[in-house]
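Aim 2 progress update. The chain analyzed this quarter is reproduced below.
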Amino acid sequence: MYEAEAAINETVYRHVLALDGTIAAEHGIGSLKKHWLPQVRSAEEMALMRAVKQHLDPQNLFNPAKSLFNFPTNQTNKNPAAPAH
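Predicted structure tokens:
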């Protein structure tokens, strides 16, 4: 990662989220931005994504090291403050 990349991304994403924007595109959210996911998706959306993942991959065989769902279920969304790293 470039030296200033994390700081630049955080600044940009905070502004995007403050304007009710999103950080993902048609290809989804990558592992570098996964800590932002609870900030842009509701608890219900996160629960639905977990349920779909569980249904399609009940044994967690599909790339388990890259799981985007290693978040507590009680996180809230739409908060421009970045989660702790």
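The helical segments are 5-18, 37-40, 43-56. The first helix runs from residue 5 to 18. These observations will guide the mutagenesis experiments scheduled for the next reporting period.
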